[in-house]
Structures are given as C-alpha cells and as structure tokens.
Amino acid sequence: MGYFSIEAEQAVLGAILKSPDLIYETALQPEKFYHAGHRIIFEQMILLRDAEKKIDFVSLVASLGDQMQELGGTSYLLQLSQSVPTVANFTEHERIVNSKYLMRTGMESLGEVYGAGLDNPAEFAAELMDIAEKIGDESRIKEGFVHIRDGLENHFNQLQEKKYSDKPIGFSTAGTALDRITGKWQRQTLNIIAARPSVGKTAFMLNNARKNASEGMAVAMFSLEQPESQLYDRMVAAECLIEGERIRTGQLRDEEWAKYVTAFTKMVELNLYIDDTPGLSIQEIRSAVRKLKKKHPDLIVFLDYLQLVRGGKKFDNRNMEVGYVSTSLKQMARENDIPVVALAQLSRGVEQRQDKRPMMSDLRESGNIEQDADTITFLYRDDYYDKETEKKNIIECIVAKNRNGGVGTAEMINMKQYGKFADLDISHHELKDRRQGA
Questions:
Q1: Which of 1, 73, 222, 320 is 20 to 30 A from residue 201's alpha carbon, by CA?
Q2: Crossing angle (nearest 10°) for helices 90-115 and 121-139
Q3: Domains annotated on the chain, with CATH
Q4: Is residue 302 classed as helix, strand or coil in its secondary structure?
Q5: What gap in Å lies between CA 262 and CA 257, rounded to an integer?
Q6: Which residues are catalytic?
Q7: 14, 178, 438 from 81: Cα distances, Å
Q8: Is-contact 88 249, C-beta < 8 A?
Q9: Nearest Cα to 28, choosing from 144, 145, 138, 143?
Q10: Which pTM does this prediction carry?
C-alpha cells in the first residue's frame, strides 16, 4: 500500500464542492494532502471559509486565479465536483487522507532518525518512541460530544460495580490516615513522594510496596539508587521488626532467625518485582512495565527516584530532561491504567528556611513534576532538624497537592531502627508484642 490516496483526496475536495458546509466540519489541514494541486485547492477553500465567503465553483476559480491553469484548468474542478455521487462517505475519505499523511510523516521522521547516525541504542529508542507517540496521538479517533444520558449511565454502572465489587477501590498508601486524605492511589495517576535525603523516602516506599503486595496487587519497583540486596535487608527488617544493623551483619539471635524464616515464607509468595539496574532510561522503564502489565492487570509501579531516570536523548538543559521524564511517567500511568509512585529529591532551599517543612517550590529541577503529578506528598521529620523536639519518631506526610481530593497532614510512627512506618494510633503494647514475636 502506498502512503497516499489520490482518490480519497479527490473525494474530500469533491464532497466540499458538492456540500460547502463540510468545510466547517473537517479537521484536515492543507499539508495533509499529498497531491500539490490538492493542497492548493484546499488552502483556497480554507481562505474562503475564513473570509466567510461561499465555496462554490465560481468563487473557487476566482480565488485560485492564475494558479488555475497549473492545476489542470476549470475542467479539473468540474471533475472533482463530479467525482463523488454522494457526500455520505465524507468522514471515511477524510480518515483515509489523515491516515496516509501520518504514515508519510512517520516514515520521513524515521528517515531523519536514521540519517542522524545515532550510535546510542537508548537515544535511538527515545526518538522512535516520540515518533510512535505522536502518530498514536494524532491517529486516535476523537469521540466528540457525549450526551449526558450516556455519560451518566456509564457513571451509574461504574458506581454500582464499586459498591458491590469485592475488589478494593484504589491502592493503599502506607497508613490509614494518609489513605483518608488522598483517597488512596488511583489508576492512571502519577503520585510523587518527596523529601530531603535521609528523611526516609526509600523506607516509606518499601513499606508501601510490601503493603500493596500483601493486599494481592502486583508491585514493580525500579531502584536506581540502591542495589536489590539492600532493599531485601530493609524489607526483612521492617517485616520482622529486627534492627536493620543485625540484618545487614547477619548477627541474628535464635528467636530472630525464627522470625526471619516465618517472614521469608510469607514474602516469597508476593508478586513483587525489583529492577535495580542503574541509569535506566524512561523508555526502558516503560517497556518493562508494559510487559509486566500483560501478566498482572492489578499493577502498581514504584520508582526510586525520579531525578535519576535518564531521558534517553539529548536535551538543552537538565530541567527539560526531568520534565520529559515526569510527563512520560504520567503517560505510562494513563496508557497502562495503573498508579505510578515516584520518589523525588527536594532542593537545598528547604535548609535555608526557619520552618523546614517542604513546599512545592522545593521540588528539584522541573516545574513539570508539580504540573504532571496527581498527588504530591512531602515527608518531614522534626527530629531530623531538632534533636530536642517533642515529636520524636514521628513523620509528617504532608499532602500538598491532590487533584481529586483534599490536602492535609497525616502523622505516622517512624521506627527508624527497623525502617518501619505505622499508624499513629497503634499502641506501644502492640508494637512491643510485635518486636517480641508474640
């Protein structure tokens, strides 16, 4: 099949000559016509429309002027007007013209990428993905208006399904108070967890991942900062309530070994996947997620951390690259119908203020993060800055942005020695019993 259809182009132009009001309904532009003469004719039709003049044989001949002879004279216009017996298939002919245009531009873009002589596979993949996304976006059929009756019937069915379904609505966060504020993490959302280094972002992520997996979800973790073995140390410590240092050195007491074996038998059954490849590009991450989603429909993705992901191609500055990654993560959430939770570093600006609770402006390197995110939660520990604070071992989860709900602060217990987070209303007796294996 060729990358143009002269017949479809003729049918579009002929239909407009037969029924001039179609010029107000079409979304085509002159450059989408392959035949040079057809581009000129359609361009003149657009000019007549914008000048609020009727499009007919006489006005079009006058508008074309001297160009008329180059196009084959008035006989060609007559041929066009007679080329379609009915305008009933106008939409289909319009679709063909648009599809052929997308194929031509796609092949031209591929030729440019080939001609650029790229020798980096990741950069090459990034360029190909950009081309594919652009063609996909432009070829997507636009549904247009939806009558409220149809929309509300669909809404009713969804609401009924939520009411009577056994499946949980949304993916749980680390704590019930945080769940109440955020409404949990929903599908097709990008959720940012941001803090300064050493506040507890990774531990918070691991607590979340473990909770989601225990609730029957599949979890994918991309750890660009820490190796897989360190994540296992931290997850086991939090699960068993054994001090992290004892896990790292292997110096476990007999009762701790028993707790470890019990946790081991539970954790190996979880659908939890870790990729600790350093320097991953966003294209590699999207490809891996797409494959895993085919195996596990109920999937949530965690990323540690956003600013370490490579854009996979050249950018004018660092802000543009981080913005590209942020937008790509949002697209990944939408196209796979999953929640994506990405950790993010905050700038040093936090340290310069008297109140060191983070703000939106502290997000490092790109305003796109704030724009793309559906929720943004900052982690803050007062004992990180003030050793004498009354809020020892308390972490504040500050929900600063929530596109589909409220904002506020949820407090949780932060047991740093275990890398464990717990709801604030858990009693000290309960925690003591857990540590002792009761």
A1: 320
A2: 170
A3: 6-117 (1.10.860.10), 170-435 (3.40.50.300)
A4: strand
A5: 9
A6: 225
A7: 4, 65, 87
A8: no
A9: 138
A10: 0.70
